[in-house]
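Box S2. Input/output pair 1.
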Amino acid sequence: MTRTEAVVTTVREGVAGRTPLRIAGRGNWLSAGRPVSAAKTLSLGDDSGVVSYVPGDLTLTVRAGSTLAEIERVTREHDQWLPLDPFGSDDGTIGATIATASAGPLATNFGLPRDLLLGLEFVNGLGEVVRGGGRVVKNVAGFDLSRLLTGSWGTLGVITEVTLRLYARPKVDRSFAVSLEGSEKSTTALLRTVAASQLAPFALELLNGAAARSLGLGDSAALLIRLGGNAPIVEVQLKALSQVARTEEVEQSTWTEFREIDRGAESVIRISTLPTRFLGTAASILADTQPRVVISINPRRGVMRLVTSGGGEQELMTTVDAGIPVSFPTDGQGAGTSVIFEKLPPEVWPVVSPSVVSDPLSRGIKNAYDPHNILNPGILGD
């Protein structure tokens, strides 16, 4: 019996016995907080390994239980990499990363998980094996099942295999920090200058004082930027950046620490809006003095994350209420602000986010792929 067949058997047994299944990789996302009504766990944590790797095509197919660390080791041997760095550690599996649509700082330049996913294999809630996409970069399909499964949190199918788009590993990869200890006016001017420049960073994050302190970057708000490519490209960009700000080079491990900044957090909230809206408000948000609210802003993507631990929930809500992005108006074309709860105490979920799949379209898709509701029931709400 193949590993996919074993998943099929488990799902069909769940259907026959009406036994809901909790789908998990290494279990890193089980602490996200939203309750799951499952009697049994279907773990793919041990279902790892390379299925196919064609370095010349920059494509890699692996089992869903393969960790990001394993993929890093395999691709490094061919001077290639998968620029996917979700928040958390590299011990997380690629299947869980795709299922939760988890992205990190590198999404600034390389895109979201759906942009790096070429195809996948999954087992739906009827125990049927389904394939979407393909194993080549130029792939055309009528209905994009790969994107449908990305971010579905295992509610439509159990991802068993994924095919990914790789990139050549950059010859030079350097990171720098810029202290934002000046006035809000000077910080805003700097951010507008950087936004209007030709800089093309791999990653760029704005950190409030609490976030900067946790990374050992001082007590003031800071800009953390990652530049990569060949040597001439990096030098040109560094020179341009140095003309408008005083830079200090930092270790690449700073990004690893940043991705793990919400380790042990009680609440994580993500706020998204148009990138241009952060240019005039980021400085005042970063100046917020709540000591237990860690704030990071990706102004290129228009994404802000707020993290609390140690009983800082009240401070978090104070920051959100006074902290601007939630009150951003729409631009007249329906492009407003969205608030995504990544992690909350279990008892809070029913109050602030009872469901994100209650609309007719989501219910129709769920009924088509998991009519008996045995796959991660409740993880996205009722």
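Box S3. Input/output pair 2.
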Amino acid sequence: MSRDLRKYARQTNVRLITGGLFVLFVVGIGLIYVFYGQWAALTGFLCLMVGLIPLILVWLMLLLLDLITKRANRE
């Protein structure tokens, strides 16, 4: 029985990122809602979404570079 450690590491990273985003959005926005109200929670949500834009752009660029590198190494 062989183990694919790269697949396991990728799966673990995805789970950690998903859990972190879940805590940030659900718990964070929930606490803002409880203490400050509906409009503050909406503002917090919008700020978090805008804050994620640079991270998503960097992730997309790294994904593009990975695809280019794989294609170049295949030839």
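Caption for Box S3: Residues 45 and 72 are 40 Å apart (CA to CA). The chain has a mean pLDDT of 93.
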